[in-house]
């Protein structure tokens, strides 16, 4: 039986390796404290759940949900965006519901890339951005992110011959995994770059609300208010703790929305309409649940940074997201400072604490690990103390 060649680049996955390592640690009697997955442990707001529960008894919600039946959700998303960012959005032509924003970022390459076209991707970056390009037969040019540049790509470093073949650039700020925030000045630079070169600018924006200090983080459409080249992806997974409900949406350039809608119409319908009603309640209802989510992750961040300092592992204090991006100490044995997957496997085998190896997000992520703040401050402190004991024993 033949398996498609396009799957070949997707065969290796360090997160699958880590999942295997966690399973082996459990078999050896370890209690796992999993800081490797960015899945919020906070509950979905009660007013959202009550709307979804009520919908279960409404027969009108039991059938297929085609595009026209999502109109109320699209209107709610457009109005939410205009309230937050001050830019008008046409819910008919500039909004598309998605089964999580990952559906959009993975499928958009099918709509804008031909085999051999190039996608400009952040390195490190979110793994689904890579997978969608490979499935579309595209090529990847990694834009390396370094601390010295604030984990922003240097667009002037992209070779002209690469730019000539590029059809899309994918950004995502606040950034997973580095936690960096991009200023509006950078987005303006990126928009101008893409306008000059006929490139679609894609901004994956799941951490819209997850920032802890300073001004609100910008939308790329604030740098491209006419939506000339840009499309932005949103999700309710982080702001409203609805990851399992798989609700996202795209806002942006009407041609890109139309093309993505064609792909979506080929492969699926939309969510259960009761879930979309719950999403409308989230976007239009009281927002104190969002403020509570932010304050919860801020307190977890502070506890984790303090615990890391206690064990002698200094790390930058993130201003956004639900992660800590920590550079591995230089004095680790076994060359672990440059072999993050081996360090993470050894750590979970010995302590039960699971982290994400930086190499899983791209070659420029090597030498780092990502800690997800998905437990209480007390559990995070215990986990980091375990890491400290492990480091002492290894040294």
Automatic annotation (TrEMBL):
Required cofactor names: pyridoxal 5'-phosphate
Segments forming a coiled coil: none
Record has Metal-binding as a keyword: no
UniProt key word Transferase: yes
One Gene Ontology molecular-function label: pyridoxal phosphate binding
InterPro entries in alphabetical order: Aminotransferase_I/II_large, LL-DAP_aminotransferase, PyrdxlP-dep_Trfase, PyrdxlP-dep_Trfase_major, PyrdxlP-dep_Trfase_small
Aminotransferase class I/classII large domain: residues covered: 31-387
NCBIfam families: PRK07366.1
The encoding gene: argD
Keywords of this entry: Aminotransferase, Transferase
Residues that span the membrane, as ranges: none
Protein name as it appears in the record: Bifunctional acetylornithine / N-succinyldiaminopimelate aminotransferase ArgD
Pfam families associated with the record: Aminotran_1_2
């Amino acid at each position: 039986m033949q398996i498609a060649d396009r799957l070949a680049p997707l065969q290796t996955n360090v997160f699958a390796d880590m999942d295997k390592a966690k399973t082996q640690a459990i078999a050896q009697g370890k209690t796992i404290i999993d800081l490797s997955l960015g899945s919020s442990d906070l509950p979905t707001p009660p007013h959202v759940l009550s709307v979804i529960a009520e919908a279960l008894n409404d027969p009108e919600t039991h059938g297929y949900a085609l595009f026209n039946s999502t109109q109320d959700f699209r209107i709610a998303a457009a109005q939410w965006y205009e309230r937050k960012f001050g830019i008008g959005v046409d819910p008919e032509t500039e909004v598309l519901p998605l089964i999580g924003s990952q559906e959009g970022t993975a499928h958009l390459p099918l709509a804008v890339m031909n085999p051999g076209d190039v996608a400009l991707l952040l390195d490190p970056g979110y793994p689904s951005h890579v997978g969608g390009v490979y499935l579309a037969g595209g090529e990847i040019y990694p834009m390396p992110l370094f601390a010295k540049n604030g984990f922003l790509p240097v667009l002037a470093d992209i070779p002209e011959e690469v730019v000539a073949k590029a059809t899309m650039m994918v950004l995502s700020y606040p950034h997973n995994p580095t936690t960096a925030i991009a200023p509006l000045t950078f987005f303006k630079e990126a928009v101008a770059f893409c306008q000059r070169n006929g490139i679609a600018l894609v901004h994956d924006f799941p951490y819209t609300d997850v920032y802890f200090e300073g001004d609100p983080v910008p939308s790329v459409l604030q740098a491209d208010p006419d939506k000339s080249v840009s499309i932005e992806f949103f999700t309710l997974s982080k702001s409203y703790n609805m990851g399992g409900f798989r609700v996202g949406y795209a806002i942006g350039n009407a041609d890109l929305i139309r093309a993505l809608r064609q792909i979506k119409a080929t492969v699926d319908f939309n969510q259960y309409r009761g879930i979309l009603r719950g999403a409308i309640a989230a976007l239009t209802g009281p927002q104190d649940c969002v403020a509570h989510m932010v304050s919860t992750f801020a307190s977890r961040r502070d506890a984790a940074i303090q615990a890391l300092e206690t064990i002698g592992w200094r790390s930058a204090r993130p201003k956004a997201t639900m992660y800590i991006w920590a550079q591995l100490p230089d004095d680790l044995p076994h060359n672990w400072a440059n072999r993050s997957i081996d360090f993470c496997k050894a750590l979970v085998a010995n302590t039960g604490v699971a982290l994400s190896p930086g190499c899983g997000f791209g070659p420029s992520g090597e030498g780092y690990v990502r800690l997800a703040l998905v437990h209480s401050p007390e559990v995070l402190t215990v986990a980091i103390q375990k890491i400290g004991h492990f480091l002492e024993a290894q040294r």
